[in-house]
Amino acid sequence: MTTTTRPAEPVTAAAPARRSGPAGLALRQGRLEIRQFLRSRESVVFTLGFPLIMVLIFASIFDEEIAPGVSYTQYFITGMIATGLMTVSFQNLGIWIPIERDRGVLKRYRGTPMPKWVWFAGKVIMVLVTGVVMTALLLAVSVTLFDLELPTTTTAWVTFGWVSALGVTACTLCGIAISSLARTARSGSAVVTPVALVLQFISGVFFVFTNLPTWMQQVAALFPLKWMCQGLRAVFLPESFGADEPGGSFELTRVALVLGVWCVIGLVLCLTTFRWTTRRDG
């Protein structure tokens, strides 16, 4: 009995993978972060559903005017847009980064040749995409069900853009920074969620800001959410409503200044406190 030997297949060298530039690396990481976010149904439902549910509940219950030509719904929606942006950035990152750190994901990533900034860029892209989707859904529901009037001037949309951009940047950096306070994956929510809830109640999201106690207004003025809400009110509410603000106007210059300062504070905190490993790993 004879056996025949099949000739070996010719071995060809694998084509070298194309090297991506900085933008390509960031976009690739961003797509990965978005896919991971979408796989977590609980996070998707909470992040995108919470602002919508709150608008549906509060706007259905409170339909009175808080000022001539300004309904409670108009006022509340501006606060929920700001809250939604804080949720997709500060709250989500503050909860999920400790989970990744506890599972050793960050430790393994640090050991790869991939530049560390790519990981942060992926998080930022995920936050931006999620924030745009959440805001679009919130505006669509508000316009369809509660007759929200969208801005009609270019200036108003530009204001909407820079207030949202500065607010998301500040909240993203603060979310990355506060993630280092959580000792374990489970403690991330316990650290971040109470902070987010307190800020919502004192920053004029659920209640008219000037109706809150003076000391509460002063505390809220130290944090970004209050200024995000105020900046967005300048976009969606009549200019005359500015007279009802604590400073007698919407104070957009101060809004930009405070949010810009928080971007710097958040960046410094990230650079000085962020950890790739848990304390038990050293």
TrEMBL record:
<dbReference type="InterPro" id="IPR047817">
    <property type="entry name" value="ABC2_TM_bact-type"/>
</dbReference>
<feature type="transmembrane region" description="Helical">
    <location>
        <begin position="255"/>
        <end position="274"/>
    </location>
</feature>
<feature type="transmembrane region" description="Helical">
    <location>
        <begin position="74"/>
        <end position="97"/>
    </location>
</feature>
<dbReference type="GO" id="GO:0046677">
    <property type="term" value="P:response to antibiotic"/>
</dbReference>
<keyword id="KW-0046">Antibiotic resistance</keyword>
<keyword id="KW-1133">Transmembrane helix</keyword>
<dbReference type="InterPro" id="IPR013525">
    <property type="entry name" value="ABC2_TM"/>
</dbReference>
<dbReference type="Pfam" id="PF01061">
    <property type="entry name" value="ABC2_membrane"/>
</dbReference>
<keyword id="KW-0472">Membrane</keyword>
<keyword id="KW-0812">Transmembrane</keyword>
<dbReference type="InterPro" id="IPR051784">
    <property type="entry name" value="Nod_factor_ABC_transporter"/>
</dbReference>
<dbReference type="GO" id="GO:0043190">
    <property type="term" value="C:ATP-binding cassette (ABC) transporter complex"/>
</dbReference>
<keyword id="KW-1003">Cell membrane</keyword>
<keyword id="KW-0813">Transport</keyword>
<dbReference type="GO" id="GO:0140359">
    <property type="term" value="F:ABC-type transporter activity"/>
</dbReference>
<feature type="transmembrane region" description="Helical">
    <location>
        <begin position="157"/>
        <end position="178"/>
    </location>
</feature>
<protein>
    <recommendedName>
        <fullName>Transport permease protein</fullName>
    </recommendedName>
</protein>
<feature type="transmembrane region" description="Helical">
    <location>
        <begin position="117"/>
        <end position="145"/>
    </location>
</feature>
<feature type="domain" description="ABC transmembrane type-2">
    <location>
        <begin position="42"/>
        <end position="277"/>
    </location>
</feature>
<feature type="region of interest" description="Disordered">
    <location>
        <begin position="1"/>
        <end position="20"/>
    </location>
</feature>
<comment type="similarity">
    <text>Belongs to the ABC-2 integral membrane protein family.</text>
</comment>
<feature type="transmembrane region" description="Helical">
    <location>
        <begin position="190"/>
        <end position="209"/>
    </location>
</feature>
<feature type="transmembrane region" description="Helical">
    <location>
        <begin position="44"/>
        <end position="62"/>
    </location>
</feature>
<dbReference type="InterPro" id="IPR000412">
    <property type="entry name" value="ABC_2_transport"/>
</dbReference>
